[in-house]
């Protein structure tokens, strides 16, 4: 059985994608896909997360995409997304690994454009409409003075689903510099938005997209290691 989960507004054909100029191919809206196949000895939940090049204190990766059920041996799932960034927030309580981050609000943003927002409890918790600010190339969240400590979490996402989050607090400033690094994993008891402890994830591998490649296939093999190649 094959399941396709898409997070794009409108899917682009391979021919149309290949006809884009090189600069456009790197811009927001470029569509990517990962086809994950289970050729191991048992069913697994397949998920995808993003990882920062260097660890940042108090910033957590989320299970970005996740199969809605275990993938049986011989079955597969495909995730499709685009480089479209978002600000996200959630009422998580204390942010620790194992907590589920449910995006209660999402605001579209762009590192080169509307890149700054404020999280406030005025008229109820939420994010303001993003505006352009400094530094260019980063995504910035300002926590207002009425934000309590250890109650809410804020962060950034891609294609409407959270990727990195941090604990919100009174007058805190959060600056994220997007550098997408995609990782695939097989596990149990994981759902979209699960706060991850990166150091404890097993059966994982980075899924690198070579230049001008937008579709990858990842195969979980009998020894529970991943083999990743262009589609």
Describe the protein's architecture and organization:
It comes from Rhizobium phaseoli. This is Protein RhiA. The strands form four sheets. A five-stranded mixed beta sheet has the order 1-6-2-17-18, with no helix packed on it. It has a five-stranded antiparallel beta sheet with strand order 4-13-12-7-8, with no helix packed on it. Strands 5-3-15-16 form a four-stranded antiparallel beta sheet, with no helix packed on it. The radius of gyration is 18 Å and the shape is globular. The protein has two domains: about 100 residues, no CATH class; about 100 residues, no CATH class. It starts with a strand and ends with a strand. About 10% of the residues have low confidence. It contains two helices and 18 strands. The protein has about 230 residues and is mainly β.
Tags for this entry?
5-stranded antiparallel beta sheet, 18 strands, mainly beta, about 40% strand, 2 helices, about 5% helix, 2 domains, about 230 residues
Structurally, how many domains make up the residues?
2
Order of helices and strands: EHHEEEEEEEEEEEEEEEEE
Query: pLDDT under 50 segments (min length 5)?
Result: 10-27
Adjacency order of strands in the biggest sheet: 1-6-2-17-18
Radius of gyration: 18 Å
SS summary, helix count? 2
Which of globular, elongated, flat, extended, rod-shaped describes the shape?
globular
- Going by helix content, strand content and strand pairing, the class is mainly beta
- The overall average pLDDT, rounded, is 90
CA(first)-CA(last) distance: 18 Å
Helix content: under 10%
Strand content: 35-45%
Please give the number of β-strands. Answer: 18
Largest sheet: 5 strands, mixed
Organism: Rhizobium phaseoli
Protein name: Protein RhiA
């Amino acid at each position: 059985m094959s399941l396709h989960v898409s997070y794009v507004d409108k899917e682009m054909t391979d021919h149309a994608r290949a006809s884009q100029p090189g600069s456009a191919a790197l811009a927001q809206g470029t569509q990517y896909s990962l086809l994950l196949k289970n050729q191991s000895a048992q069913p697994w939940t397949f998920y995808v997360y993003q990882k920062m090049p260097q660890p940042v204190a108090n910033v957590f990766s989320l299970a970005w995409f996740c199969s809605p059920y275990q993938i049986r041996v011989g079955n597969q799932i495909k995730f499709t997304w685009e480089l479209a960034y978002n600000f996200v927030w959630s009422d998580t309580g204390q942010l620790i690994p194992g907590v589920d981050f449910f995006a209660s609000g999402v605001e579209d943003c762009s590192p080169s454009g509307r890149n700054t927002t404020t999280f406030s409890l005025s008229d109820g918790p939420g994010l303001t409409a993003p505006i352009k600010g400094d530094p260019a190339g980063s995504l910035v969240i300002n926590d207002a003075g009425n934000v309590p400590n250890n109650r809410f979490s804020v962060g950034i996402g891609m294609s409407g689903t959270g990727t990195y989050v941090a604990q919100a607090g009174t007058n805190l400033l959060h600056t994220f510099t997007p550098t997408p690094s995609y990782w695939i994993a097989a596990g149990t008891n994981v759902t979209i938005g699960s706060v991850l402890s990166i150091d404890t994830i097993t059966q994982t591998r980075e899924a690198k997209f070579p230049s001008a490649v937008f579709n990858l296939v990842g195969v979980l093999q009998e020894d529970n290691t991943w083999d990743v190649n262009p589609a």
